[in-house]
Amino acid sequence: MDTIDAMRVFVAVVERNGFSAAADALDLSTAAVTRQIAALEKRLSARLLNRTTRRVSPTSIGAMYYQRCVQLLAEFDALEASVGAQALQPSGRLRINAPVSYGIARLAQLLPGYSALYPQVELDLQLSDRLVDMVEEGFDLAIRITRQPAPSLIARRLAQARILLCAAPDYLARRGQPASPEALAEHDCLSYTYLAGGETWSLQGPQGEASVALQPRMRANNGEVLREAAIAGMGIISQPDFIVDQALADGRLVAVLPGWEAAPIGIHAVYTSRSHLAPKVRSFIDYLAQHLDNGNDSSL
C-alpha cells in the first residue's frame, strides 16, 4: 500500500462524506476506495471512519488523523512542486573538465555569457590535459578533443579544429622549409606527449597520406608550451588552430608544408549517462553548441 495515496483517499472520503463521491473525485472504483481505507485502518490499527447507510464520518481519532493528513499532503505537494521547478531550471554547481589550452583559448570567453543567462548555476571549471575519470572525480561533463570519444561516454560533437604545421621564421631561415613530409624527419620537431599516434605524425595533402616517424627535440604535455618553444625557434610543431592561430596571424609563426596537415580533430562534450540529464548540463552543452561553429572552432 502506498501511504500517500491512501492518505489522499481517506481525505477525499472525509471531505465528500462517502466512498462513492470520493471514488468519483479520484477516478477510482468504489471497491478500490473501500480497499484503501480498510488497508489504512489495518496498518494504523485504528478505526478512522464511522459508517452508516446514510453517511460516512470520521471517528475522533479519524478526525485528528484527517487534520494531520491535510497538513502533510499540503507539505508534500509543496515539496514536489519545489523540486519539480528546480529540476526544470538550470541550477547548482556544474563541474566541467577541459584541456588547459582549449579552456583558456575558447571556453574562458564563453563562460560569462552562459553565467549571465543562468545565474543559478555555479560554474566550476577544472583545466587538465590528463584524461580524468569523470565518475570518480565528480565531473558533470568534460570537453574532449579527440577523433574518437570513449565508447563508455555519451558524446556530442560541438566543433572541430584543424591541426597545423608551423615554425618560427628564423628557424626556417636557418634550417630551410621542408620540401615534403618525409623531410620532417631531418628537422627539429616538438612533440605533444599525449599525441594518439605517439612520435608519428600522420598528414594529409595533395599526394594523399604520409606518416613520418620522428625523434623529437622536445616533448611537452601542453600545447601552449610547445607553441612558445616554436616561437623561440626551437623547431616545428603540429598543433590545433586554437593554439597557434594568433601566432600565425601576427607572423610569429609561419606555415610549414602548406597543403599538408593532420586530419581535423573533433571537439566533444562528453558525459556519463543520457538518463535524467540535469538541466545545468544540458543547458551548458546547448550553449556551447550554439556558440561554437560546428564545422570549425576557429570562428571564435
Set out the fold topology:
Layout: H1 3-16, H2 19-26, H3 30-44, E1 49-51, E2 56-58, H4 60-88, E3 92-98, H5 100-117, E4 121-127, H6 134-137, E5 141-146, E6 154-167, H7 169-175, E7 189-192, E8 200-205, E9 208-213, E10 218-220, H8 223-231, E11 236-240, H9 241-249, E12 254-255, E13 262-271, H10 279-291
Parallel strand pairs: 3-4, 3-5, 7-10, 7-11
Antiparallel strand pairs: 1-2, 5-13, 6-11, 6-12, 6-13, 8-9
Helix pairs in contact: 1-2, 1-3, 1-4, 2-3
The biggest sheet amounts to:
9 strands, mixed
Query: Count the strands?
Result: 13
- DSSP summary: helix tally: 10
Strand-residue fraction?
25-35%
Secondary-structure element series: HHHEEHEHEHEEHEEEEHEHEEH
Return residue spans where pLDDT drops below 50 for at least 5 consecutive residues: 294-300
Fraction of helical residues: 40-55%
- Rounded mean pLDDT score: 89
- Categorize the overall geometry: rod-shaped
Derived from helix and strand composition plus strand pairing, the structural class reads alpha/beta
Straight-line distance between termini: 58 Å
* Radius of gyration from the alpha-carbon trace, in angstroms: 32 Å
Outline of the structure:
The protein is about 40% helix and about 25% strand. With about 300 residues, the chain is an alpha/beta fold.
Describe this structure in words.
It is a single chain. Mean pLDDT is 89; it is low at 294-300. Strands 3, 4, 5, 6, 7, 10, 11, 12 and 13 form a nine-stranded mixed β-sheet that branches. A two-stranded antiparallel sheet has the order 1-2. Strands 8-9 form a two-stranded antiparallel ribbon. It has helices at residues 3-16, 19-26, 30-44, 60-88, 100-117, 134-137, 169-175, 223-231, 241-249, 279-291; strands at residues 49-51, 56-58, 92-98, 121-127, 141-146, 154-167, 189-192, 200-205, 208-213, 218-220, 236-240, 254-255, 262-271. It has 300 residues and is α/β, with parallel strands linked by helices.
